[in-house]
Design goal:
By secondary structure, the protein is mostly helical. It has six helices and no strands.
Length: 178
């Protein structure tokens, strides 16, 4: 790729105006989601240092599951790093530096994470309510997961509505001024 073509491509993704932080009345789901994901990442990191599989508040892991995982600590560190990535995504939705990330990429990350969290939460809720599989899921873990999912969905929805609405309003205002 030619250098000037790269510069033009980079300018397409640059925001038209300097991004601003989102007011707290709209940003609180993102901050609470970031805290929730940080707790998740810390729990996974703690388990990784001990070489254990599982989730704090989750069911005990069987010996056969340890046999299926070649490197337990690595698996837990990868999950902890995904939790830290989720923290970064949540903060990118409301902090000024998040405006430097291409909007479609951030939307894909937010809604993709929401989808994966919803699938996981359906599994946990099924295990708590029906209890047909591995025993040991606590109601506390199900409640924490449901609250975290609701916060993430609220944050993703607010990001989708806020940014799309503001960009459209700015374009209409700029056209009307000319």
């Amino acid at each position: 790729m030619k250098p000037m073509a790269a510069v033009r491509a980079a300018r397409r993704w640059r925001p038209a105006c300097r991004p601003k932080a989102v007011p707290l009345k709209w940003a609180w789901p993102a901050y609470l989601s970031a805290v929730d994901q940080l707790i998740y990442a810390a729990g996974k990191g703690y388990y990784a240092t001990q070489g254990r599989l599982g989730i704090p508040g989750g069911p005990p892991v069987t010996a056969s599951q340890y046999g299926d995982t070649s490197d337990v600590a690595l698996a837990q560190w990868v999950l902890a790093s995904l939790g830290v990535l989720s923290v970064a995504m949540a903060l990118a939705a409301v902090r000024p530096w998040g405006g430097l990330i291409p909007r479609p990429l951030l939307l894909l990350g937010l809604w993709g994470t929401a989808t994966l969290a919803a699938v996981s939460q359906i599994h946990v809720a099924h295990e708590v309510l029906v209890g047909s599989g591995t025993p040991g899921w606590s109601g506390r873990a199900a409640l924490q997961g449901a609250v975290g999912l609701c916060l993430w969905l609220a944050m993703a929805w607010l990001f989708t509505r806020r940014r799309g609405h503001n960009a459209t309003a700015a374009v209409k205002t700029a056209r009307g001024a000319e």
